[in-house]
Design goal:
single chain, 241 residues, alpha/beta, Rossmann fold, four-stranded antiparallel β-sheet, 7 helices, binds adenosine-5'-triphosphate, P-loop_NTPase, ATP binding
Length: 241
């Protein structure tokens, strides 16, 4: 369980986040929605210890410590190291922990259809392939907390659907508390169990009405158009306040 209590972040004299409190269960995905500049990336950075903040963040009851806990962050640009091959990028979290990497890396490359690309460098990959490498690197060390910061946003709609399915398959294999920052309403409804809407630095938690359906079925559900319309309306009301 991830527990964020009374978290606040200020840059210079501007308060970006204030009194942000929520939990993410051990097998839960929370989508974080909010207008540009509201503080979504700031929230992710504060949670994983890259941003000074007030309040507390604990994972399984212990204060977050990236040295002791296995955190995985997939940033919007995927954060791949250009001088490492696909296989070396994917194995990085294991090597940083001095863990044997080969077998796990090969298995993860296979699971995400990346085996033929193992020796390529990121510059020689398409956007969708880079995104799969980033997911492979996030999942390879079986993280205890997974943070995705607009990790699907650069993909075209067709590749996105494939990426959601691959993400779902890997996540189901080793679920962990997960935050998915997104601008995309469909992504929020397809991937999440609950939604956290940020407005003026404050969080509003909402249920995902499609959460009981398997992720692959959500956009095809008869209720999907209505749920999407309701979500747009509810979020717009929060942002208008
Ligand atoms: N290091 C920094 N110093 C000062 N201000 C910052 C810093 N980083 C971010 N900000 C400001 O804090 C606010 C929140 O930024 P943040 O990147 O968290 O927003 P966001 O919701 O992720 O936006 P987007 O959806 O556009 O990525 C913005 O107004 C931004 O300009």
């Amino acid at each position: 369980m991830l527990t964020v209590s009374h978290l606040g972040v200020a840059y210079a004299h501007q308060q970006i986040l204030e009194d942000v409190t929520f939990t993410v269960g051990p097998q839960e995905i929370l989508a974080v929605l909010g207008p540009s500049g509201v503080g979504k990336t700031t929230l992710i950075n504060a949670i994983c210890g890259q941003q000074a903040h007030t309040g507390t963040v604990t994972l399984a009851g212990q204060e977050i410590d990236p040295q002791r806990q296995q955190l995985a962050l997939v940033p919007q640009d995927y954060g791949l190291l250009p001088w490492l091959t696909v296989a070396a990028n994917v194995g990085l979290p294991l090597r940083l922990r001095h863990a044997a990497a080969n077998q796990q890396v090969m298995a993860m490359l296979e699971a995400l259809g990346l085996t033929p690309l193992a020796k390529r460098y990121p510059a020689a990959l398409s956007g969708g392939q880079r995104q799969r490498v980033a997911l492979a690197r996030a999942f390879v060390a079986q993280p205890t907390l997974l943070l995705l910061d607009e990790a699907f946003s650069a993909l075209d709609p067709v590749v996105k659907q494939t990426a959601y399915a691959l993400f779902d398959k890997q996540w189901q294999a080793t679920p962990a508390p997960t935050l998915v920052v997104t601008h995309d309403w469909e992504e929020a409804l397809v991937l999440s169990d609950r939604l956290l809407v940020l407005a003026q630095g404050h969080p509003h938690l909402m249920k995902n009405a499609l959460a009981d359906l398997p992720r692959a079925q959500r956009v095809h559900a008869p209720a999907y158009p209505q749920v999407l319309a309701d979500l747009r309306e509810a979020v717009a009301a929060q942002w208008a306040k």
